[in-house]
Amino acid sequence: MGKRVSYSDEGIAFEVRIAVKKQLFALLFLPVWLAGWTIGGITAFKQVVSDTPTEARTFLIVWLLGWFLGEVFAVYTWCWMAFGKEIIRVGSGLMTVRRAIGTLGRSKTFQTMYISDLRAVGYFGNLRSLSTNMAMLSISGGTVAFDYQGKTHRFGIQLEEQEAREVVERLRPYLPESAASEHP
Prior knowledge:
Elements: E1 5-9, E2 14-19, H1 24-49, H2 54-83, E3 84-91, E4 94-101, E5 104-111, E6 115-120, H3 130-136, E7 144-148, E8 151-155, H4 161-171
Antiparallel strand pairs: 1-2, 2-3, 3-4, 4-5, 6-7, 7-8
Helix pairs in contact: 1-2
């Protein structure tokens, strides 16, 4: 098993930790891109506070809003690629899926009795959809899926097929029989 996935059984809970797959080109390129993007934003901001005509100032303010969203997204993406991890914890009738950068993150908790069809999966869906593109950027999605109250949830971003299958097999003993995959 690769260094990205680790397991621990603490008696009351079983935990899977998955480090984000490091993409060297993106980790090196994104700070360079951010430097140029930041210079562009600073230049636009200077224009807004100077004697720029009203029409141009209005355009620049709207542009700066988009610039700010791009800046936040790029910083988040870089931090996720550099320091991100997924933590899946099963115990006391609950499964928690947490995506975190250091100590900051968001968690989703599921009652294990409603989890079904835990399985290793690939990337599916429309290549033009936002969720598929976010998965390709290593920000969302995953190669392990399960159904919960009519919705499919995923984790295990960019795991190799064998890694995803092992995660499924290691989680199964801690989940009810309904979580057993309906797929071969």
